[in-house]
Design a protein that fits this description.
about 325 residues; alpha/beta; TIM Barrel; 2 domains; disordered C terminus
């Protein structure tokens, strides 16, 4: 019944609709701080569903066939953002077991021992002794005495701090994160992101690799020159690492007109990217802008609700529906 519904909503040919799913991490075991982040068992379950319901294609092939009016029914593609080590260690073996392929968008500045700013915040709060943190010295509006007495409080504190920091000007954000780490003074993990050889191993296993900037900034907040350097630097680093062209790109955070804008799209075109993905919800139709392909992943646990939300998403083209305040409900990283 589910396959039949998806066939009706996403027929073959000119009327086809492409579902592009987005993931960030697949944890080896559940994390109480992020209960909606898939672990290995959950991702294995989702991959089994996707393999049974959809014809999962490499992203570039799927977009090209979509625009040519030659996409098969129930077509989908799977993507990952950022470049976490568990993409290689946990997600890739599960994908291969189910005969699935995915595209991995890598922020190259964090390879080989780097750590994303949001993970510094997360791990600082995770490791901080409770029951409270005094963060008034950071000078962030609304962030002062923070309760971290239990898992729920730490989860709320992390959300509050990420929201307060995300759209700060880049130099100020980086300075505040360093100040936070110095204030809390805990040992932080060094192996969260992939090593260069793991990126090559993904490619060698039949996965695709795309660019995701160097340091995952909000492109809309940068000068044109700075945004171009971030996008081109990531592309060139991956091309040197893989000895092949890198033609796909994911906008960091990915909300249209908030995290990236028309200038970002123009830069992607000028730099030779042939496709780029956002985090606007929806499914792509034949007239999709290949440099603004929408993506969506349900967060529901029951199979029928997961399928229903995918079906509803197939009815949207991603132009009006973007990830906004629903991110917190969905538990999706951007």
């Amino acid at each position: 019944m589910i396959r039949t519904a998806f066939s009706l909503l996403s027929p073959a040919g000119p009327g086809a609709r492409l579902s592009v799913l987005i993931f960030h991490r697949v944890l080896a075991s559940p994390d109480p701080l992020f209960p909606d982040e898939p672990d290995a068992a959950r991702f294995d379950q989702v991959c089994a569903w996707l393999a049974g319901w959809f014809k999962v294609l490499p992203l570039d092939l799927a977009v090209n066939r979509l625009r040519a009016g030659q996409l098969p029914a129930r077509a989908a593609a799977i993507t990952f953002d950022d470049g976490y080590a568990d993409n290689h260690d946990v997600a890739m073996p599960i994908l291969r077991r189910h005969g699935l392929t995915a595209t991995f968008f890598v922020a190259t500045g964090f390879l080989d021992g780097g750590r994303m700013w949001n993970d510094t915040v997360i791990e600082c709060v995770r490791r901080a002794p409770g029951p409270r943190l005094d963060l008034g010295g950071l000078g962030l509006e609304g962030v002062g005495q923070v309760d971290i007495g239990d898992v729920a409080a730490k989860r709320a504190a992390i959300g509050q701090m990420l929201r307060a920091l995300k759209y700060q000007p880049l130099p100020r954000r980086d300075a505040l994160v360093k100040q936070l780490a110095a204030t809390i003074g805990v040992s932080l993990p060094q192996g969260l992101m992939m090593r260069s050889e793991q990126v090559r191993a993904l490619r060698d296993a039949g996965m695709q690799v795309g660019a995701h900037t160097q340091t995952h900034p909000i492109l809309a907040g940068l000068s044109r020159e700075h945004a171009r350097a971030e996008m081109l630097g990531s592309k060139q680093a991956l091309e040197q690492l893989l000895s092949e062209p890198v033609l796909s790109f994911a906008y960091p955070n990915g909300k249209p007109d908030t995290d990236y804008n028309s200038e970002s799209v123009q830069l992607a075109r000028e730099l030779g990217f042939e496709l780029a993905v956002s985090t606007a919800w929806g499914a792509a139709g034949r007239d999709v802008d290949p440099l603004q392909v929408p993506r969506f992943t349900p967060w529901d646990r029951p199979q029928w609700r997961y399928a229903l939300r995918l079906a509803r998403n197939l009815r949207s083209d991603g132009r009006q529906v973007a990830v906004r305040d629903l991110v917190a409900e969905a538990g999706i990283r951007t």
